[in-house]
Design goal:
mainly alpha; two-stranded antiparallel ribbon; 2 strands
Length: 69
Amino acid sequence: MSISYKPLWKLLIDKNMKKQDLRRLTGLSGATIAKLGRNENVNTDILVRICDALDCQLVDVCTVEHSCI
């Protein structure tokens, strides 16, 4: 199982925003944005800040992808 932030990137496109806009809006560091870009784990507080800034729900930001065994 892994997490994917594809919904976040799609949401940014739909809102005509770039990653830099998200950084400015949320105050996230470049390292955190990079982690999101690599689908790495981030603190849930980060996800809540993103949801608050974009006025969306967690399901609009990430999904869990199940790997086939």
